Amino acid sequence: MHIQVNGKQIDVGDALRGHVEDRFVAAVGKYAENPIDSTVTFSRDRHEIVCDALAHLSTGMIAKAKGRATDPYAAAESACERLEKQLRRYKRRLKDHHLKRREEPIPAAMANGYVLQSAPQAEAEAEEYVEPEGLDPLVIAEMRHQVQTLTVGEAVMAMEFADEPFLLFNNNSHGGLNVVFRRPDGNIGWIDPANLPEG
């Protein structure tokens, strides 16, 4: 497994890089079969060091975890423990539910994503804000996203792995677009337009 250790406005020395590589390779390798690569990024948030970890698995799943501490080693340890917990839970679910492991990577299609400018929330921001003409919002960034073909159970796991509030996916049973999302009550919501009752 290849691991990349980066720093955003923070210097990552050889000792920290070596520690992180050893720790994350052991953690990911223990619970994930054939991990492809991992990226660990350190950054500052006021007085804390933030460690963002991302692991790409051979199945196409992506696991993300974040750790915070005043020390970079402690932040890395926190992120690594969270990543281990996710991978351990994923592996246990597969075993407990006797799910067949995917031999091939998860099929995915590419989709365009956009970041739209929002109306200012504070008065200070309002001075520089230019109201767009018409109802079309101003696009401030474009990116590419993968829309994977998953079962509903896999989609829930992928959403939890990625630590996202929702996940758009192609439903494996009928190929239509579906969404799973975390509800305010802590449960998971599932939107399946293909299964709308007729009438």
TrEMBL record:
UniProt-listed Pfam families: Ribosom_S30AE_C (PF16321), Ribosomal_S30AE (PF02482)
Molecular function (Gene Ontology), one example: ribosomal small subunit binding
Segments forming domain Sigma 54 modulation/S30EA ribosomal protein C-terminal: 137-189
SUPFAM superfamilies from the UniProt entry: Ribosome binding protein Y (YfiA homologue)
Domain of life: Bacteria
Coiled-coil stretches: 73-100
InterPro entries to which the protein is assigned, alphabetical: HPF/YfiA_ribosome-assoc (IPR050574), HPF_long/plastid (IPR034694), RHF-like (IPR036567), RHF/RaiA (IPR003489), Ribosom_S30AE_C (IPR032528), Ribosom_S30AE_C_sf (IPR038416)
Main location: cytoplasm
UniProt keyword list: Coiled coil, Cytoplasm, Ribonucleoprotein, Ribosomal protein, Translation regulation
Subcellular location, record wording: Cytoplasm
GO terms for cellular component: cytosolic small ribosomal subunit
Any GO BP: negative regulation of translational elongation
Alphabetized NCBIfam families for the sequence: yfiA (TIGR00741)
Function: Required for dimerization of active 70S ribosomes into 100S ribosomes in stationary phase; 100S ribosomes are translationally inactive and sometimes present during exponential growth.
Oligomer and partners: Associates exclusively with 100S ribosomes, which are dimers of 70S ribosomes.
Family membership: Belongs to the HPF/YfiA ribosome-associated protein family. Long HPF subfamily.
Official protein name in the record: Ribosome hibernation promoting factor
